[in-house]
Input
Amino acid sequence: MKLELKDIDFVYPKSDRIVLRGLNVSFEEGTVSSIRGDSGAGKSTLLYLISGFSKKSGGQMLWNGEEVTDLDTYRRTTVGTISQSYLLFPTRTVLENVSYPLILDGYPKEEAEKRAKELLESVGIEDIHYKKLPEKLSGGEQQRVAIARCLAANSKIIVADEPTGNLDQTNTQGIINIFKDLAHNQNKIVVIVTHDPAVAEEADIQYFLKEGVLVSSLEQ
Output
């Protein structure tokens, strides 16, 4: 599996400001990639493009060699996004949050809950938390639930936007270890946008976004 961005340009609508300029990069299964850059460099723009929430101004985005043209389907079947604000449903329990994508996908409720429990266990969330609302969990626990929900949607690509921004060092390392496991043992493509050099250096491939172009750490 491979996600390729070829000659990607992005210009803000009704503006002449070029944010991304002829950007080329490939993200392959089994790898964790990190992206850093100065404030305003376009990291969020690039993340929104990879996540399918924004449309490019020029170039091609290819998934396994075929251009992505239906962003709705791409978001639903291929990519999952994790942010530092977790984006969990506040009025649904932990188990309901993770079951939700499965039920949307047609799973019977009992089967969805069984699978959700397996996913929660895989990211270190114990059954004593299943009936809790997200606000009753710590930041690290909420981030793990968010990852489990992303896995419930069977996303091949996982894009994480500052996923450790609100976490302490212990929880940060725990989340990084989960991302590594997803890539190395489950063949996911993991892309992390971060300002934290220590987090970036944990990735297999490090990029720095500068003047609208991605530069690998080997090229700096």
Summary: Residues 30 and 187 are 4 Å apart (CA to CA). The chain has a mean pLDDT of 91. Helices lie at 43-51, 71-77, 94-104, 109-122, 139-152, 169-186, 197-200.
